Amino acid sequence: MKGRNSADSSARICCALVSWILFAVSPAVAAQQEPTETPNPAKTRTAASRTNQKKTPQKKEKPKQPVDELTRLREEFIKATNEYKASLEKLRGSYEKSVRKAEDHVAQTKELFAQGLVSKNDFEASERALAQAKDKVSEVDRRIASADTQIADTLLEAEAETKLARTRVPKGGMIKTTAFIRYNGGAAWALSDAWKVQRFYLDAFKKPLPVAVFGQGSIHDRWRLDHHNAMDVSLHPDGPEGQALLGFLRANGIPFLAFRQAIPGTATGPHIHIGRPSHRY
User: Fold this and answer.
1) Residue 128's domain spans which residues?
2) Total domain count for the chain?
3) Which domain-ending residue is among 116, 138, 164?
4) In this predicted model, what pLDDT tens digit does every residue of 209-227 receive, in sequence order?
């Protein structure tokens, strides 16, 4: 009896010990079995990117600078001149067709005249018609060249006017830059004295002075440039004829502004402006 009580007591002690061990170990096992969440790299980068976007201030676009009047007019006139030249090119094509027809007619009339089938007057009339057709082509070519020259010369003078406004040149003084030469002659100059310059050039080179613009032109009105008492000569100031002309002007105290460079987008540009610089009004 005594032995049975002892066994029961030992069994109860063992059960209590096992229960305590299980109670102590269960939280650790549960912790080991609980799945740990692996960080997602994509989510991490996205979150970091959102954070950086909030922190980084966005750059404000700089307001566009307003186009100054000179630039606007330059673009406007170059566009208008190119459109005008394009229309002249079409006209030239039409005139060239007329020239070819007139040439064929002359050839036919010449053959008929040799056979005695047409009169000499008919043959000469066909030749005159051919000459007139060729003159029309030449006139269009002259107008195309004049369009280039006029726009280039005026652009140069408009740009020079802004530069010269900040520079004072004494009477008889001269300034030279890579772009232009300004001579402030002391003589009283009027456009009515242009014949003196034309006579000098004719005597020196046996040909007329190549005047591009005489006095105020329509393009000067549009640019509001006072060109009433000046003329533009299509000569490069560094060429032999240009140098001779500049020497004559200086010797006679005639003011001038000689341009050495051309304007991008046009065919010509260098020229000699005889008279006081054109001022804007």
Assistant:
1) 71-164
2) 2
3) 164
4) 999 888 887 667 766 778 8
